[in-house]
Amino acid sequence: MKHRLMLCCLSTTLLVATFVAAESSLKLAKLDSDSQAGRSGTTDNWSVLNPKKLTLRSAAALVTDRDGNEVYAKRGDKALPIASITKLMTAMVILDSSLPLDEPITITREDRDLIQLTGSRLEYGATLTRRQMLQLALMASENRAANALGRTWPGGMKAFIKAMNEKARTLGMQTARFTDPAGLDPGNVASARDLVKMVRAAATYPAIRKATTTKSISIRPYKRRGPLKYVNTNRLLKNKSWTIQLSKTGYLNEAGRCLTMQAKIVDEPLVIVLLNSFGKLTPFGDSNRIRKWIESGIKG
Question: Which of 55, 78, 152, 239 is the most buried (most CB within 10 A)?
Fold first, then answer.
């Protein structure tokens, strides 16, 4: 009798254990299914957008979400001149190094622009810290500041450009090529798809996010003069309807107007890349068209 009771109890225990295991498996399967649904939910949202309803004036454009899903694309794989968007790479290389950001750097004749012959308010003898040079290069697209950062790199300018291209390779930027730290040479090229990789990498640096979204700063590069005020080259930062987390503009005759941003639209951090736009306001107009297209498409 005792033997039969033990067998009965054992059978009951096994049945309960089997039921619990089966129920746990079902829960895990459901959790995995929910997780997959969560990951694909955003992609499903983008599928309601009609690209035929978006007309952009930029020659190349790409918009992606936080997971790299494509929201909109136009000639996204063609390598084009990127002008001062280059400075995002310059900043990452500097910040990856152990160079002291508080070290003073003085502008010299070597830092002048001999390619596009642009001017600068940083005259020979102007002295700022490496951190301030970085801020000006990113926020105000100061070319002499960017050139000074490359010139003062260990090994000089050639070594710095080599480091820029090595960084591009580590990011998987297959079409990218860098030839100077300021983006003055039209030989600085990349596809919109590669620039998305660069923007997403740059967004992991708090110093880059802060500098590129600062509206204005005042600096004192000369001992016996007053401060110089610099403003951000991205006018969308003044627009309260935008939540911009990182941005960089660029312009050359060969590149047209360029703009890269990471910005929140419908509560989603999106990367926007616009290349080869002709007309000073075209990238900003295209950005607004993209935002309205997404908002109206998602919200109905």
Answer: 152
C-alpha–C-alpha distance, residues 74 and 178, integer Å = 23
SS3 category, 184 = coil
State pTM to two decimals: 0.85
Distance, CA of 143 to CA of 137 (rounded, Å): 6
Q: Is residue 19 part of a domain?
A: no
In a domain, 5, yes or no: no
Domain assignment present for residue 37? The answer is: no
- Of these residues, 84, 191, 277, 287, which one is catalytic? 84
pLDDT tens-digit map of 114-126:
999 999 999 999 9
What single string gives the DSSP state of each residue in 26-93? HHHHHHHHHHHHHHHHHHHHHTT--GGG----SSEEEEE-TT--EEEEESTTS-EE-GGGGHHHHHHH
Which of 87, 167, 197, 248 is catalytic? The answer is 87
The three-class DSSP label of residue 203 is: coil
Q: Is 52 annotated as catalytic?
A: no
Is 141 catalytic? The answer is yes
2 is catalytic: no
Q: pLDDT digits over 11-21, tens only?
A: 444 343 444 34
Domain limits at 112? 50-299
Which among 25, 58, 141, 264 is annotated as catalytic?
141
| CATH number reported for the structural domain that contains residue 62 in this entry | 3.40.710.10
Q: In the predicted model, is pLDDT for residue 129 greater than 70?
A: yes
Q: Quick check: is 23 in a domain? A: no
Angle between helices 206-213 and 130-139 (to 10 degrees): 50
